[in-house]
Write a structure and sequence with these properties.
Layout: H1 2-32, E1 33-38, H2 53-62, E2 67-69, E3 75-77, E4 80-87, E5 90-95, H3 109-120, H4 126-129, E6 138-141, E7 144-148, H5 156-159, H6 170-176, E8 190-196, E9 200-205, E10 218-223, H7 227-235, E11 241-242, H8 250-255, E12 259-274, H9 285-294, H10 297-303, E13 310-311, H11 334-343, E14 352-358, H12 362-376, E15 381-387, H13 389-397, E16 403-409, H14 415-423, H15 440-451, H16 455-472, E17 475-488, E18 491-492, E19 508-509
Parallel strand pairs: 1-10, 1-11, 14-15, 14-16
Antiparallel strand pairs: 2-3, 4-5, 5-7, 6-7, 8-9, 9-10, 11-17, 12-16, 12-17, 13-17, 18-19
Helix pairs in contact: 9-11, 14-15, 14-16, 15-16
Length: 511
């Protein structure tokens, strides 16, 4: 009897301890952690060596820029408290004095100078900081710096709000060496803790952050490639936020009383790109035009995207300054496609194209299948190659394949950033121009757009460039995008950002 009584007491105590642990874990999750899932893993946290969305969404929490662009796309002080134009090409920035890096180093003008000079030498983000003249980066004192451009550059301040211009610590980068991309150091509200490649990235609240402290103690960014699995994880409470909800899952979210849906237009344009210097017939503008006419973009937006976003009219999202709203779209016209192919000497098709697509985006994979089916009607064979995201970016940057599917978010809301890196000859490959498109007239228009200060004149230059780009068809212009995110109903403070990467420090899970 004593043995049974003692055993019962032990079992009851153990059960109570189990309940307490569960309750404690639930409470801890509700108050102190935030779990977010998206479809792709980061590439590297050396942010001057990549410019992809998956990385930026996490880097936003770790790093900070001199100037911040809020959800309304207004410029606000960041690490710089204020700035003043010295002349047409030079600004002086007053820096915050109470900022520390995650390694304990004090933030000073020396770090800004190091960042700008290092960024100017980067092949990956030259289109973002290429206007900076290293000779005009001048440290005035520990918390004052001047940054100059080679020529007048209208959207310069907005470019300094781009995540890729976030300030890095020289000591951390130097000590990290080739491994720095897996052990980043910033000044943001969250500091990096660990990264399990292909699985998750973890960050924790930075106790010495100069600004408003992060509400969640930890944030976990999980990689869940399959849309349906990501939604199930949200429904089951395994994650708190599911980014990039698939169009086919929107109705399920709306019907679930435990979930909330966020939908907002963004600054992106989705496209199917051609390698215009391919050794296949897509190096002929008539073939590219024919393929444009052969693809029913309206049907793709309706069926693949199920009404999310809208059909693209050209290379720039209409929310971007300088977008040409008068471009004539390539309407679905199979007869015209056949006529153009015949004119180019391919009346019966008879050639094969290699189409690359990342394995992390179900909609893009479906678009690849649509392209394959539609072009088969013209006698063109399409071979689809799915690649892991990092390998895909590397392959398209090298010009592998004849076609590829990507999107571009004009983060700065200015046509310079939406056109120059994607269509200027100097930006071939990983810098942005993966179509390897080259036209001297377009180059000149984009160069002039950079250095012209009059907004009306800049707009005219960019609109003219878009007409040429539309006619020469280095892309199939597919979709102007929309951010679609689902959260648990008890998630508080979440806001979309038109750039598609979000500030999360003031997001928390409520009781």
């Amino acid at each position: 009897m004593k043995y049974r009584k003692k055993l019962s007491i032990i079992m009851i105590a153990a059960f109570a301890l189990f309940l307490t642990a569960c309750s404690s874990g639930s409470s801890q999750g509700a108050k102190d952690s935030l779990i977010i899932a998206s479809s792709a893993d980061a590439v590297t946290f050396d942010i001057q060596n990549t410019n992809d969305q998956a990385t930026t969404r996490i880097a936003r929490q770790i790093y900070e820029t001199l100037i911040k662009q809020n959800e309304k796309l207004e410029l606000e002080p960041g690490l710089a408290e204020s700035w003043t134009a010295i002349d047409d090409t030079t600004y002086e920035f007053k820096l915050r004095k109470d900022v520390k890096f995650h390694n304990g180093e004090a933030f000073t003008a020396k770090d800004v100078a190091y960042t700008m000079n290092r960024a100017a030498a980067s092949e990956q983000i030259g289109h973002i900081v290429g206007s900076v003249d290293p000779a005009k980066v001048k440290i005035v004192d520990d918390h004052t710096i001047q940054i100059g451009t080679k020529e007048p550059f209208g959207p310069f301040l907005t470019h300094l709000a781009h995540p890729a211009t976030a300030i890095m610590n020289e000591k951390a980068v130097t000590e990290g060496g080739q491994d720095y991309g897996t052990q980043p150091v910033g000044t943001g509200p969250y500091k990096f803790t660990n990264w399990t490649a292909g699985s998750e990235v973890n960050v924790e609240r930075f106790a010495d952050y100069w600004g408003e402290k992060g509400l969640a103690e930890t944030i976990t960014f999980k990689v869940i490639k399959e849309n349906s699995v990501r939604l199930i994880a949200l429904e089951n409470g395994e994650i708190d936020i599911a980014l990039d909800v698939a169009p086919s899952d929107i109705a399920k979210v709306e019907e679930n009383k435990d979930l909330a849906l966020y939908r907002d237009l963004n600054l992106s344009t989705g496209y199917v790109g051609f390698n215009t210097q391919s050794k296949t017939p897509v190096n002929d503008v008539r073939v590219r035009q024919a393929i444009n006419y052969a693809i029913d973009v309206d049907a793709i937006v309706k069926t693949v995207y199920q009404g999310v976003g809208k059909a693209a009219q050209g290379p720039l999202n209409p929310l971007v300054f300088g977008a040409n709203s008068e471009l004539e779209p390539y309407n679905y016209d199979v007869d015209k496609a056949k006529a153009l192919l015949a004119e180019a000497g391919y009346a019966d098709g008879g050639f094969t194209l290699k189409l690359l697509v990342g394995d992390n985006n179900a909609e893009r994979i479906k678009i690849a299948e649509v392209v394959k089916e539609e072009l088969s009607k013209l006698g063109i064979t399409v071979e689809i190659n799915q690649l892991e995201w990092g390998a895909y970016l590397d392959a398209t940057g090298k010009g592998e394949g004849d076609m590829y599917i990507l999107g571009w978010t004009t983060v700065t809301t200015d046509a310079d950033y939406g056109l120059y890196p994607l269509f200027h000859t100097s930006q071939f490959g990983k810098a942005g121009n993966r179509a390897f498109y080259s036209n001297p007239k377009v180059d000149q228009l984009l160069d002039d757009g950079k250095t012209t200060t009059d907004p009306a004149a800049r707009e005219a230059l960019y609109k003219e460039a878009q007409v040429i780009i539309r006619d020469e068809a280095p892309w199939i212009f597919v979709q102007d995008g929309e951010n679609v995110t689902a959260t648990r109903k008890n998630v508080q403070g979440f806001k979309h950002h038109p750039t598609g990467s979000y500030f999360l420090s003031q997001v928390k899970v409520g009781e």
